[in-house]
Design brief:
By secondary structure, the protein is an alpha/beta fold. A seven-stranded mixed sheet has the order 3-2-1-4-5-7-6. Helix 1 runs antiparallel to helix 4 and helix 2 packs parallel to helix 3. The termini are far apart.
């Protein structure tokens, strides 16, 4: 398909994907989401970026690939073994800091800080502590979430959580959002 032809992957993406697969981790972002993250990260000149849910670091590699040299990325993951995969491949990049901890704790500890870009790819920042996460978003900043199109592996009741999340984001007067029925289903919101 033309949409996914000629998408250049980040240099470390293949190695990260192989290590993630060897570790049994199947939740890495897909090519389309990665490409979108890279493009959006590229719009944040001298930006402060936050990723909640590093996983093995595949989405992190896409974000870093789009960032300029003056931007910084903080990435948070609870699973230390997954975070170690990301650190192994991306730790030499001085623009990224790894926080191996519960995302909810991180969000509460960083109260008062702001970010120009937040990719929430885990429960904290998406289904839990959402208001606190959006408070971390600077005016004009981008909030990105994925995995919104139903799949057979969703647990019972998860579809209701997704529906509630989307309705809540729709109701917020401080966000301008676009829902994208593409890839795994995404929302991109800009803070007024």
């Amino acid at each position: 398909m033309l949409w996914t032809q000629n998408i250049k992957k980040p240099m470390k993406a293949e190695a990260i994907a192989a290590d993630a697969e060897a570790a049994g981790f199947k939740m890495s972002c897909d090519l389309e989401t990665g490409s979108l993250l890279r493009t959006l990260a590229g719009s944040c000149e001298r930006g402060r970026l936050l990723e909640l849910g590093t996983g093995a670091g595949l989405s992190t590699s896409w974000i870093l690939d789009g960032m300029d040299a003056a931007s910084s990325l903080l990435t948070v993951e609870l699973d230390e073994s997954l975070h170690n995969i990301a650190r192994t491949h991306l730790g030499s990049d001085s623009r990224v800091q790894f926080f191996t901890m519960d995302g909810t704790v991180f969000i509460k500890e960083f109260k008062g800080h702001t970010f120009d870009f937040i990719f929430a790819d885990t429960w904290p920042g998406k289904y839990n502590t959402l208001d606190e996460t959006l408070a971390l978003l600077s005016p004009g900043g981008l909030y990105i979430i994925d995995d919104l199109i139903p799949v057979s592996t969703w647990s019972e009741g998860h579809a209701g959580k997704v529906e509630h999340l989307i309705q809540y984001l729709d109701s917020r007067e401080d966000l301008i959002l676009t829902k994208i029925n593409w890839s795994t289903g995404l929302i991109i919101a800009a803070k007024k």
